[in-house]
Amino acid sequence: MAYIDWSPDLELGIDLVDQDHKVLVALLNQAHECMGDREEAATLGSVLNALVDYTEYHFLREERVMDAAGFSELDEHRELHRRLTRQAREIRDRYAVDPSGVRAVEVMDFLRTWLMDHILKQDFRFRPAVMARPESVDVARTIEFETRDEDHAADGATGAGDSPRDAATVGGPVDFTTMSVLVVDDNQNFQIILRTIFKGLGCPDVRLADGARQGLDALNQAPPSLILVDWRMEGMDGLGFVRAVRDQDITVPIVMITGYNEPGFSDRAREAGVNGFLEKPITARGLVETVSRALHDVRSAA
């Protein structure tokens, strides 16, 4: 059962903003689902990271729309964004340092109050200005997820979700709207986290496999343009899956998800055919950067 059900009452009627809000609601619901998960520190930590990353992206897009529409209360709204970002970062960073020191109810109460209050009470204030100038939305469509807002970046302490580099400097911008992704992970919460992030980035086709065997079956149906696979899985592990994929002469980029650091593992994984690594708890920006680098490496080797 969803912690928050999306309803027409939450819709501004501005498609781009509504889609962003739906992603944030999905992440909030996933945070609720992750409580008590067998990998809670990795799953809930990843959701909190993604919430901070996607919120910064959404706030930047929203502010560009308000500016283009000539919204008279932009400065006040921007300051509210800064305050909410600081609060979200604080909870995320506290959880990263000591998961037991952050009460689950505190996280959920803050996120629910923040999101619902912000949408219902604050965002509806700029709706008339944008509706009067619908072309103002176009400026936000040009913003890549990798774009950093200097005001946001300078506003708070760096944390697990802050990427020191733009993904564009690593392997070039990634057009997720043309990609198909296969996620192979026996943790369903983690599957859904990744699917939510990819959907938020515009990826139209995200397939989920509960383990290596199911993942191999999915490859027989239609090869994706990117594979993400967890290292530790019941039965065939991630390395076994990668070797089986490469034995089929499938050359798409493979990113391995791991929360462990074993000496020599990365060398063995690269020899098996892994193109990049994503450490748990993941961040949305870290995901984009890793995918960008993996795609670049595969293209360079071709």
Automatic annotation (TrEMBL):
One of its GO terms (molecular function) is metal ion binding. Keywords: Iron, Metal-binding, Phosphoprotein. The keyword Phosphoprotein applies. InterPro entries: Bact_response_regulator, CheY-like_superfamily, Haemerythrin_Fe_BS, Hemerythrin-like, Hemerythrin-like_sf, Hemerythrin_metal-bd, Sig_transdc_resp-reg_receiver. Pfam families: Hemerythrin, Response_reg. It comes from the Bacteria. One of its GO terms (biological process) is phosphorelay signal transduction system. PROSITE patterns: HEMERYTHRINS (PS00550), RESPONSE_REGULATORY (PS50110). Gene3D superfamilies: 3.40.50.2300, Hemerythrin-like (1.20.120.50). The modification 4-aspartylphosphate is found at residue 230. Residues 180-295 form the Response regulatory domain. Residues 150-169 are annotated as: Disordered. The keyword Phosphoprotein applies. NCBIfam families: bact_hemeryth, hemeryth_dom. PANTHER family: RESPONSE REGULATORY DOMAIN-CONTAINING PROTEIN, STRESS RESPONSE REGULATOR PROTEIN 1. Belongs to the hemerythrin family. This is Hemerythrin-like metal-binding protein.
